[in-house]
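Q: I have 143 residues here and want to know how they pack in 3D. Can you give me a structure?
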Amino acid sequence: MNKIMFVGRLTKDPLLEKSSSGNVSYCRFTLAIDRGRSKDGEKETDFPSMVCFGKTAENLEKFTEKGNLIAVDGALHTRKYEKDGKTYYTDEIIANRVEFLQWKKSSKEEPPALEPAEIPQGFEKIEENAKSESKLTDDDLPF
């Protein structure tokens, strides 16, 4: 199984690019992911390289900017390339799904609004200001 999930901050503004054929949009980006603290108390951070394609790439550029918190669901991919007669290998994350946990402040477009869910038959709408009079007991807990 090859599955990776990260939550981190964009290290720079995403830049949308097109493939050499011009048919595929893609965006390469790097996340700053906190790893915790070392034994001597130093904060540690990882900076994995990532790439996403198509609408995901277009929306990443449109709705996020440097410093925004995002979640990435993807897979590890090792890429090989040659430069000056030498073969190099690099690891990158192919982001299959990206969730925006923060939105670009300067975006002229608002993120899509969530539609209220329809109340299923047999249930009543609870007013937001209503307070529950009942308290949970230990018998109510599922564990």
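Q: Anything worth noting?
A: The beta strands are 4-10, 15-18, 25-37, 43-46, 49-53, 69-83, 86-100. The chain has one helix and seven strands.
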